[in-house]
Amino acid sequence: MEPMDTRMSDILITYDERKDKFESYALTLKSLLTTLIRNEKISIHSLESRVKTKKSLEGKINKKGKYKSIDDITDIVGIRIITHYADDVDKIAAIVEKEFTIDQENSIDKRTSIAPDKFGYLSLHYIVTLNSTRTNLKEYEVYKNIKAELQIRSILQHAWAEIEHDIGYKSATGLPNEIRRYFSRLAGLLEMADDEFIKIRKKISERQKEVAKELEQGTSDSVLDIFTLDEFLNTSRIMSELSEEIKEKTGITVHGRYKDKDLGYLLNGLNLANITTIEQLNQKLSQMKKQIVDRIFCFGEPFINYCRETPMPKEALLSYLCQIIVAFQNSPSLESEFNNKAGLNLKNSNISDFFSNIRENISTQP
């Protein structure tokens, strides 16, 4: 049997020779997995790749003392995928099992391997190689038989792992009972939190489907909230008609949504304008199409020219509607509240002039 020092030297020499290939493989896997996950429409928190450093590799060889060649080491290339939800771990696992060759002997599902009375993070670890379908392609053949470790876990499982690593204890053995209880309680809380986030996501999805059905059936008494307003903006016939009128009269295309889709400010503005249901919103839009068009003209030619080049988000039309309604209440206190809660963020000294300009340039007559 070769002495340990000789095997160590041979492995490290091979590592230096293959390092560029390892780094290229890590980036290739990252790109491939990103595409595969995106194609399944799974939203994840992060996907990171790494290549084990020479120092780390040397430490692993010394610690284990069992490696005869670099091909025995399965985690030189590593990928970590962090999901938002615990059940997405299984969805990504299904992708991995379909698209890669799995080394079952060296893969481990720590979610099932850990005893129920022990603490530790729950994570899924695969050792994989590219399958023959891929290695038959020219761009992948150079990576044939190179193993990589894939870690898949939720963001809360990742938080546990990072804090556990910082604390420095991965086993309860030898810890005082009081500290072991703290760990167990925390592990349970994080697992419950993962489950509760899944339930919240499910409830939101169910509510979105209910709202879509309500609006499709013409339910007029639907209260405005983030779900009903979001669906209204996406599907409203009267919004489409107003958008066409704006295009005809100003040359501005109304299309799309604000990127962050934060409807909180808009809901506040609608509430201050005494619009609290879909029916009220439809009525006001029908009555005030002309005023909304006039509001756009109030901003002046430079603004209009800019908007002709850049589509105006749908939310802007509802914001203008609210501004007009609040302006004609002629209430300084309401104007100030609207400024603070509906996202105008004007200086206090400019609030009065802002709403006066609307009253002076827009007629309440149809």
UniProtKB/TrEMBL annotation:
Signal peptide: none
GO biological process: one example: guanosine tetraphosphate metabolic process
Entry coiled-coil feature ranges: none
Matching InterPro entries: NT_sf (IPR043519), RelA_SpoT (IPR007685)
Organism: Escherichia coli O45:K1 (strain S88 / ExPEC)
Name of protein: RelA/SpoT domain-containing protein
Domain of life according to the entry: Bacteria
All copies of domain RelA/SpoT, residue ranges: 49-175
